[in-house]
Amino acid sequence: VQLQASGGGLVQPGGSLRLSCSASGFSVEHYATGWFRRAPGKEREFVAAINPSGSASYYKDSVKDRFTISKDNAKDTVYLQMNNLKPEDTATYFCTAGVYKGRYYPAAWGQGTLVTVSS
């Protein structure tokens, strides 16, 4: 089972980035998938998750109106579109696969991709 995240980088406040997470060794259509992040000096936190079919998604309150999680089951890829980025969004972002039962429980983790929001 592997999760390969990409798409991080340096962006100015107000800008956009799209993170991608490519899965191998399993099919994302059978699992909930999600994103977590860890900002410098802070604990890891949940960002967003999506159910196996892609019909329902869940977000951290502070990103709800700016980030969109989606998936392409045919490509075994999960995306996180991030708009109107703020300096406080600076973090290493991790993609995950797991289950959703009232809340999202990650079971497999990919390596992180760094997002830096700075002018």
Description of the molecule:
The structure is a single chain. The protein contains no helices and ten strands. The strands form two sheets. The protein has a six-stranded mixed sheet, with no helix packed on it. Helix content is 0%, strand content 58%. With 119 residues, it is an all-beta fold.
Shape: globular
Structural class determined from secondary elements: mainly beta
- Quick one: biggest sheet? 6 strands, mixed
Residue runs with pLDDT of under 50 for 5 or more positions: none
How many E-type strands? Answer: 10
- The number of distinct helices, counting runs of at least 4 residues, comes to 0
Rg calculated over all Cα atoms: 13 Å
> Strands of the largest sheet, in order across it?
2-10-9-4-5-6
| Secondary structure: helix percent | under 10%
Mean pLDDT: 96
Chart the SSEs and their pairings.
Layout: E1 2-6, E2 9-11, E3 17-24, E4 32-38, E5 44-50, E6 57-59, E7 67-72, E8 77-82, E9 91-100, E10 104-117
Parallel strand pairs: 2-10
Antiparallel strand pairs: 1-3, 3-8, 4-5, 4-9, 5-6, 7-8, 9-10
Relevant terms:
four-stranded antiparallel sheet, mainly beta, six-stranded mixed sheet, globular, 119 residues, 58% strand
Summarize the entry for a quick read.
The protein is mainly β and 119 residues long.
